[in-house]
Structures are given as C-alpha cells and as structure tokens.
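Please think about what follows:
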Amino acid sequence: MVIVETDFIIALSSTSDVHHFEAVRVLQKNIGKLKLSPYALVELDLLVKTGRLEVNLPAYYESLHKLLEFYGITIVEPSSIHFALAWKLRKEYGLSYFDSLHAAVAVATKEPITSYDEAYRRVREVKYVSPLSLA
C-alpha cells in the first residue's frame, strides 16, 4: 500500500493539472493499493473554502467519494498519534502543517508515501516513492 495526499487528488481532479494524466495512470495501475491520508480531505476543503481551488460543490465531493470507492482507495483512520508525530516532523524537517500530517500518516502506518511534493524525500522516517515510478 502507498499513502497519497492532497496533490494527488488535485492532479486527478483537474485535466489542466500538469500531473493529471500521470496521476490517472497511477490510479489505474494501483487499484486497491492506495490509501488516502485523512488530512487530505481537510486540506482539500480548506483550499476550496479559501478560493484557491474551484469546484462544483457538493457534486465534487460526491464524485470524489465514488472515485475512491471504485478504485479501492481507502482512507486511513485519523489518530492523535498523527498529530504527535507531525509536531516532531515539522520541528525537525520544517514541513508545512499538512505535509507534516501526511508524513506522520506514512510513519504511523509504516507505508511509503507518493506525492508531487518532494519535501518528503528529506524525511528519514518516511519512504518516498515518486508517482512516476507508480505510473
């Protein structure tokens, strides 16, 4: 299993995203092998709320739910340990708030993480996998 985060969902959602077609290939080649960080949904909603991401609500979230279900992408259960780990990762590696939470999920689940944000490469506790290697 591989943890995916917000940038993967955004790439899937927008045909104008530079990584869209690669993300689609990753999705198609890894059916049932991907897990979504639960904090990706919160980050996504904040991007929508602040206007940095424009989508048709609530249809977007309904479609996202169907996509996750169809491709067997499970959502990791949130845990307080994620926040404890995230604090440590932010302090040690200077990760952003959400990147630290996504990294913490990978650490806690002992799963690799894939992202278009290579900040995860710096984190010794995380195994980073390039999305291109999964496509």
Remarks:
- The longest strand covers residues 2-4.
